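--- STAGE predict ---
source: upstream dedup step, 1 unique chain passed
mode: sequence only
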Amino acid sequence: MAGPLDGVAVVEFAGLGPAPFCGMVLADMGADVIRIDRAAEVVGKHTSATRHDFHNRGKRSIGIDLKNEDGSAVVLDLIERADVLIEGFRPGVAERLAVGPAQCLARNPALVFGRVTGWGQDGPYAASAGHDIDYIALSGALAAIGPVDRPLPPLNLVGDFGGGGMLLAVGVLAALISARESGVGQIVDAAMVDGSALLTTSIHGLIAEGAWTTERDANFLDGGAPFYSIYRTSDGRYVAVGAIEPQFFAALLAGLDIDADSISPQSDRTGWPEMRRRFSEILGRRTRDEWEKHFMGHDACVAPVLTMSEAPEHSHNKERGTFIGGPDAVQPAPAPRFSSTTTGTPLDPSYPGRDTEQVLVALGYSSERIGMLRKFGAVA
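--- STAGE serialize ---
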């Protein structure tokens, strides 16, 4: 693919969640991403899972046994020619495999060594296992999301991808600019607990102002406010209402045929229960799609709540090309968009080891050497 990162070489250790997501973002922007898969997982063809692992789109794959000394040597040869390395191992694993920051930066002093973990590289929890839900629990983000009676995990979007993979991508790109200006690489330590905490910055500002309570479903952005909430429609579907600013609130009332003098002022929390009752009763009279049509062209901040199956078929998303692919394998298109260094359609995901020989030949390995590496299990 063309793109703003055309010419940037990235090596990615295969994994789950944030690291491959980061690699996908970089590949979408035009970077040449080579994914290192474990030799034992090379099957020589696509499975249903690998074909639809969209995080691996636009990447090449080489199968390497990292515990094999010759395999580690291949990795270091790749790293010598790379601009960026991405790994999502638990702390200390890369070092034990002899591909940690010390070994890699010694081989390539300008390398950006990007690593993402849940807890970070240090701290009391660093060596502990965890998942997205645990990291956002410790950062304080999880406690603010969900109904009154319990926190509710927002899929794994806040920790793995927003606070993890996307934060790693930003850090890697910042370090890459620095390395190209100075010739000196560095380690980027992205932790999901840090990243998910960073995403709550504005809420901490509201807390400091006394404008936010730690109770769930009680604030103007967590569903507590009737003008920023979800409502069930007559067909059992939902619409999202986000009329925060006064002019949008006024447009909402007009669209619902509510006289502003018949309800309490927008900021009067004591009137919120009755306001919610009125909104619920009125919005429950029509279907979701009828309300979408009704509010189209009016700045009332009302939108239909679409399922992930419905979203690719919506007229707005179709016109913008927000999703790509056929009916059986739809995926989000690369984002953001660039006016000059435009990106193309991502190539299909590679299965583990698909590009092993191509990558080794590009490194200058002879056919005899490649044969020996395969014979002794260093590559697959």
